[in-house]
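Chapter summary example.
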Amino acid sequence: PLEWVHAARSWSDEFLLRPRSPRSPLVVQGERDRTVAWRENLEHLRALFTDPEITLLPDAGHNLMNERADHRAAVLAQLDARLGAAPG
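The structure predicted for these 88 residues follows.
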């Protein structure tokens, strides 16, 4: 049952060693997320990517697609906007 601890540690070590990327990922994060250390993760993302597009949802938790309908709609709107702007 504690295998996730090892997996999280391995992922974290690998994540922090990555070189800076010119990509700009879309990040939609709930501010009431109590599953991950999202504030620290956002700082790492800002350091690892040139210009991450970050949207914070004040009343949302960790699993945005399984929460309230307005949270789900906000995530889908972000995805639609990003995919609509993608070339090709």
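To summarize the output: The helical segments are 3-17, 38-48, 69-85.
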